[in-house]
Amino acid sequence: MLVQGTTRVGFIIGHPIAQVKSPGLFNRHFAEAGADRVLVPTDLAPAQVESFLATLRGVHNADGAVVTVPHKRAVVPYLDSLTDRARRLRAANVIRRNPDGTLVGDNVDGLGFTLAAAAHGLAPRGLTALVVGAGGVGSAIADALCEAGVARLALTDLATDAVAWLATMLADAFPATAIERPGSVADLSGYDLVVNATPAGMGGTGALPLPEAAIATLRAGCLVADVVTSPALTPFLQLAQARGCRVQQGPEMAAAQMTALGGFMGAM
Asked: Under 8 Å CB-to-CB from 166, ≥6 apart: which residues?
């Protein structure tokens, strides 16, 4: 890819940044499409978020920035406006720079998840789902599932304060969805969708997000999803496959999200 004076530039900001796969996905797509664009990985210290965004306002050949850990919440006070979902989640994972230099934030983590799930034939409306993990990604997935019309959503996390905030926010925003907060989960047979939105299993540790006895209660045909990208087939997903479940791997969400991220910035 030849970067030249006419090249449109996007950034992806995080700390650290070396493990992030988005630059490769985006730049491969741009090269194959013959697009004069580039996404630049930017290892940005938290103390520099405000000054980076101030500079971004004046970069006239910039489309915006993808935002990853740990900056998704930190960018919010420095943006001019937010979409409804970013405002609900108090976090943005993509920023569009408008021609006048104003910055608009959105959070499409959850949209990336539902797009990937749709490829498995899942239509959330009317279904019962469990999301394990109430951090940034888990919150976005839960919000997207409610927005897509799940009938019942259960949330669980060791961080009980995070679960309490998320459950309250979702109940207020989506009164048609029954929000539950089970202290522990022993029986998964009643769920149409089970999502691991925690790091459990990352890096080949073998860790599980739920007890193995609970995983053994999954019913065949349930869609079981994991946000962990390495390994793609986590121990959790392997056990779900053995139960006859459909599985959605972490890289599927990452790939589906690329369209949403690029579309919001106007780069796709």
From this structure: 134, 138, 139, 142, 155
